[in-house]
Amino acid sequence: MSVGLRPGSRAERSMAASSAFVFVFLYAPILVLFFYSFNENDNVGIWTEFSFRWYGEMFQNDAVMGALRNSLVVALVSTVVSTVLGTATALALERFRFRGRGFFDGLSYLPVIIPDVTMAVMMLLFFVSFFRLLAGAGMAFEFGLGTISLSHIAFNISFVAIVVRAKLAQLDTSLEEAAADLYADRWTTFRLVTLPLIMPAVLGGALLALTLSLDDVVVTSFVSGPGATTLPVYVFGLVRRGVTPLINAVSVVMLAASISLVLFSLVFQRRGAEES
Amino acid sequence: MLKRMFLLLMVFAVAVSACASDDGDATSAEDCEVDEVDGDLNFYNWSEYMDPDLIAAFEEEYGVDVVETFYESNEAMLAQVQGGVSYDLIVPSDYMVSIMISEGLLVELNKDAIPNFDNMDATFTSQPYDDGANYSAAYQYGTTGLGVNVALVGEGFPVSWALLFDPELTSTFPGGVSVLNDPRETMGAALMYLGYSLNDTNADHLAEAEAVVAAAKTNITAFDSDQYDEVLAAGEVAVAHGYSGNLIISMGEADNPDDFVYILPEEGATLWIDNMAIPTNAKSVCTAHTFINFLLDAENGAALTNWNYYGSPNAAAVPFLDQEVVDFYAATTEANTEVIEDQGDYEINYTDALARAKS
Amino acid sequence: MVVGADVEEVAEATPELEQEAERAASRRGMLIAAPSAAYLILFFAIPLVIVFVYSFARRSSTGATVLDGWNLESYRRLFDPLVGEIALRSFGLAVTTTLLCLLLSYPLAYFMATRPDRIRNVLLVLVMIPFWSNFLVRTYAWRVLLGSDGPISQLSQLFGGEPIRILFTNTAVLIGLVYGFLPFMVLPLYAALDRMDWSLVEAARDLYADGWTAFRRVTFPLSMPGVIAGSVLVFIPTLGAYVTPALLGGARTTLLGDYIVSQFLAARNQPFGSALSVAVMTVMLGATVVYFRRGGRTL
Question: Of B52, C14, C219, C275, which one has the fewest beta carbons inside 10 Å?
């Protein structure tokens, strides 16, 4: 492939150095939290001695394990749905003119703009009224992981849409048009031409959605229901107890799981590449 | 186009809110008997505030499941309960109890089903937020005071809010001081420093308090409600304003625990009480009564305090408490303390005063 | 770009055909938009009306919102000088954070986008992995790093300097915000730079002798949609950020996010909180749409 910078040039080297610096910046706190997860002390940041105490307590702590499970369920569901809907939003807004486009355009930015606490309050009030309305029609719904996922999707759609739109805006449409001339079918054009081209943006949007969902506290705590505590709400709820290195241990386990998932897919990809 | 869409939305919203009337299907508390259970218990509480062993013991003894859900603020809990999400037992703090009573969100307790109510120290049944404890049973209590690093402050310091608010004094502290990022607590502390009540609602007094906080700001390292205990134990600040339980644990875990003391200023300090209460839309009202009775048992009450290190309102539990906790809270009962009361319309002024003092 | 020209060429055939083609495209667009539009209307626009209605309501003495006695009091309060001061301060912080994020992210995104296929995706995921740990734990880790016993301070002492405490300063807030929002900048930038038409850049390098000019006149304009999207995704959330400034900066000043949260929670003043939110959203939506349009035109 052709590359914008001449390999070995000064620009290329300073770019690599700057990237390395950013990675150090990104992983410095991760090293700290890893290190302190083996801390015997009750405080997160005061070192006493090496111990597996918190890992032991973590696996025995049903509340934490339940919260972790809830978080993962919500994050996965909301990431998948919002990635599909967000990509469709981006496609419609960047590639088509239709009635109501202006309204939809504005609406698609609002979930990014709204302060989280405002969204939390309004979602709660909305679900309360909506469920009463549905109850009148004989359908019973309750607060819980469902309402949390619905709310996360609502804000995630917009983040995915903005990232994917940036890519679509910059893509040369001549490729898509050439393909449209070749295959009559729009869906085939999308699948074979557009989607591969915007894939980095779709992947990026999905990663962003996953992160936002895993970190949300305020909206989640307002629309949650019995038994539906997620990990961040649990952690913020430690006001009375204080945060302990137990949470570091949980983070380390989550990081280890995601890193091994990445390694696994890398090996898998390489195999696939060798076979083909 | 836009206008039409907006109109449609408005119509829908009005339709939705029109349906938002109460559907009142109250389960009666009066029929509950001692040790009666009428279903699983949905327990809504702060994280790690309840001993899991006690939950297990309750489940075993009464053959019901306890589903625990956790919240991170009284306000988030209020929003959920107000929204009609059904929990059987909640743990609101003092001021929140009075708000929830006046909003009609709490069930009047049936004391006949809670014989262990007699174990409660009289202090906790005569609080202004629920005089006579008709709607709430104290769960645990603590105080808001000052954690002092004697090595940094020096011996012979005044037992006073001056440790936070006297700029001349605080400028000599290496690392400065940490103050709670909470309008009622911090403005309340400043009001007490000036000799007023922390529930004072005189606008001139609040303006004075605002000036006190603004003047003290140079030496206030942080307005911190989350990690003040650890920051203090790590020696980053000399004095930390905070809650008794967190401070006692963190100071005990510091490198040199003997350097630290927890004090309640002589001008007065906040006493705060978390309470068990049953929302009106609870489904297992009797199980909730039984659970309250279970926790007010002498040994169970002691087990809870020995687990979370907060004060026990359970007078019968005292003989079973760890000596450490007894000593720690002995001072509290003698000190000059006051509970934060909800001040209705005046409430927003505390928030504004703190925001202005910080600007 | 070339899009407009192509459409005209096709449409030149006959006016009827042109109209028919336009209608077909409109239908198709609506069809693609329909599911997400329906979702956002039901689960966002309708709830949003509640906020709008609440902003005209009044607060009861217990902090409940009373839906009568409609008034403009909450909007009148927006003109309190305190609000302006808070908004301005937050704006400054958001601008600085956005610029720093852009400065750090561009080289990284460029570097990633110019690696071989297989490594590219791994690098992308490596950027994101730190953010799958818990937010509070990450922030606490920064407290350790920036504290007076932290590695930065120890390094300074090793070279005979004084202990340095960055924690509870504005620098700490900036570090925390840049850290937290970096991926929001890196991802759109990377998406824009990835599979860019590098032949254009090559051609530019042949035209202009030096690489900087080629970058300035070709690469950067081509990546503009990414820059715009990234800066919006960093700027807006930073404007409302309050946990990071509280934990790393010690909440020594009031910020917009902080102020709105305290209205909804501590003061339980939903009408004023709603009015503040409506104001912020109106201003920001206007700014965002204009920003995207103008950014689009510079291409």
Answer: C14
